[in-house]
Design brief:
The protein is an alpha+beta fold and 139 residues long. It is built from five helices and seven strands.
Length: 139
Amino acid sequence: MFDKIFDIGIKGTISYYPQEFVTLKQALDGNNYVKVNGGFKHYFKKEELEKLSKNLPLYLWDLVKIPFVIVKTLNPGEYVLNGSEWENKAISMLLKKDIKSYMTIGDVEKIIKEYKSLVFITLSPLGSLGSGDENDEYY
């Protein structure tokens, strides 16, 4: 019984995970949504896109992909950013601190407060994750 409840819960959570990502530049140019696994479109708020563009240097606009995916690990108070070095650099700039190892609950709250439509939060089945693999791909 517990296995079925867990399975249904995981499937429900995964069904709203982004199927695709767009660069900040693409989003600013009008492609302001991504498709999620449930078959829906998730739209980014224009004000948040503009705020993000003002807080990041122009050279990052073609490199940073959104939405940002933040993963809650099994370790208390620990989150990691799922993405490439460019997303890591962007979030580090926004927080004004290096987040290569992990993010705290305060860091996550700050990002969500400012950019809630640009962030997805998910759970990790593993204890602690890196911030992406060697190929800068999403997992």
